[in-house]
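Quick check before the chapter quiz. The format below is the same one you will see on the exam, so make sure you can read both the input and the output lines.
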Amino acid sequence: MSFIASTSTISSKCLPTNAAKPTTTRLNLTSFDATLSLIFGGMHLSRVDLPVVSSDSPSAFVPVSSYQRCVMPSILFALVAILGIALPQCSRAEPDSVVVPNALMLKANYSFRITLGRGVAVCDAYLKRLTTAVFSEPPYCDIPESTSVSGFTQLKRIPLSPSQAEELWPTIYMFVTRQRELPPRKAWLPEESKIFADGAHWTREHLGQSVRPWKYEPAISLRNNGKPDNVLVWRDNVAFGDGNDFSKCGWIGTPMASESGYHERQLAFVLTPDDRTIDQVATRHFFGHPVDTPGPFPALGDQIGFFEFESTYYVEAFLGERVGEYLGNQHWSTEDTLAVYLTQGNETKEVCEYQMLIRPVN
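Here is the expected output.
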């Protein structure tokens, strides 16, 4: 589902500096009955259109919580300005100085129970790797690379440079939120230009923190046929159109965090050889849900990663809260279900599955 916001103004002091100013219909206060209806009869949405946050809106990655705190003060300010009454302007901390008093990294012990693949060498070895890992953040944030268990080879991550990340952000955003290719710059709509500029700013300010894109060297072979694939992993809720309340992966005590901590999406893509855009066919084949739908990209999981075991590459994925169906294996997938997939040639199958158990530590 997508929405297009129409045209107007809300105080920019109520928005994060890296967010596009929302556009809505102007408050229709030119008539006396409109003013009275606002004061005595409540707001009529035919006269006041509030901004809608969605993947098609110019304010697509502005947190909903920002509007909840700031839209009503802005409307009241516009109203009392007509009546000649002065109110203080809405003030808000800058994004980089936002203080979340109760935000803490989740402290817990994690254990894994194998539900598919017991007795299969890679599944048993991967279970041992999971159970012996030391997690500084929850496993859905990152599973440490380790060679302490026999058979595993450590993959080398190569972070993107700031210029590479900024250049790719619009491409990632358009594909994940719309499944569309990035149009030529001369064809960008004004609101798209604003989204892309704000996305570049967000990437530049948060690279290495909330935004973590990387490739692999040497490149991994997704089909396990010896031919390298240009794989990119990208962690960033803003690029995926999910919004952001400046939480960090694994935080608890924030509006968007569950009891098991804030989950930040981490998706994988296959890039073209020149690194400039996404190979959409290959990305859908390897990392897309088989039941394709229009709109946002239906990813295989909410957190996708890779590992190498006995010279074979595997995809690991926390499946997220959704009804999952992958290659005939239909089940209810939760955010704590971790699956392992193997591709050989053109055939992909799920070989292992685990249930993660979380025991918070006081």
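If your answer matched, good. The first strand starts at residue 104 and ends at 105.
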